[in-house]
Write a structure and sequence with these properties.
This protein has about 200 residues and is α+β, with helices and mostly antiparallel strands. It has 2 domains: about 55 residues, no CATH class; about 140 residues, Jelly Rolls, CATH 2.60.120.460. Helix content is about 15%, strand content about 40%. The strands form 2 sheets. Strands 1, 2, 3, 4, 6, 8, 9 and 11 form an 8-stranded antiparallel beta sheet that branches. Strand 3 and strand 4 form a beta hairpin. The protein starts with a strand and ends with a strand.
Length: about 200
């Protein structure tokens, strides 16, 4: 298999790339299309042993600010989907969220029962209590615990996209986990990549 040519375009903030793939296949190896495999777009015959396909790649990146939120665990799935509607044009891909802070975090978990969010906050405060003998205390008693909680849960999540939607499970939602009492607005970088 070899690649022949690549066309780059820029359209309204999108950075789609069209890859033209040339595939050689003997007639003996040719199989019926598998419905579970991605379909090939703009494919045309190049003779009995070749097929040419053009796949459009999409790259999009946006920076958003959310909050400020009070200390706790907050569902932000709807805000993320509203902030990057280009998800609807992606057939197969992923969305990465990266939080540019060290005292908050991102995670994916239960999106239905609000008691889960209360229990998360309770459990994290038991695991990382504010009364530990921290050395870094200049920014308040909740600051060092917030850094530890942020490192435990992480600053990013990666979510697959299938047929124009985030491929979250039925009971999954995206959380912004705020670990400070007097929080500021939080900045998240959204990076979308996939095929149309």
């Amino acid at each position: 298999m070899g690649s022949s040519g690549m066309i780059d375009q820029v359209v309204d903030g999108f950075y789609p790339r069209k890859f033209e793939l040339e595939v050689s296949q003997s007639s003996a190896d040719r199989q019926e299309p598998n419905p579970r495999e991605p379909r090939r777009e703009a494919c045309g015959s190049m003779g009995s042993n070749h097929e040419r396909c053009i796949i459009t790649m999409i790259w999009e990146q946006k920076t958003i600010r959310l909050g400020p939120y009070k200390r706790g665990f907050h569902l932000i799935t709807e805000q993320i989907e509203r902030a990057i509607p280009e998800i609807a044009s992606v057939r197969i891909g992923w969305l990465q969220l990266f939080l540019q802070h060290t005292s908050a975090s991102l995670t994916i978990n239960e999106n239905a029962d609000p008691d889960v969010r209360t229990d998360f906050e309770t459990a994290m405060n038991i695991v990382v209590p504010e009364n530990m003998p921290f050395v870094h205390t200049i920014e308040g008693p909740d600051d060092m615990p917030a850094h530890i909680k942020s490192s435990m849960l992480g600053a990013s999540v990666l979510i697959p996209i299938s047929n124009g939607s985030l491929a979250l499970g039925t009971w999954q939602g995206i959380y912004l986990c705020e670990h400070r009492e007097a929080a500021t607005p939080r900045t998240i970088v959204l990076t979308l990549q996939g095929t149309k």
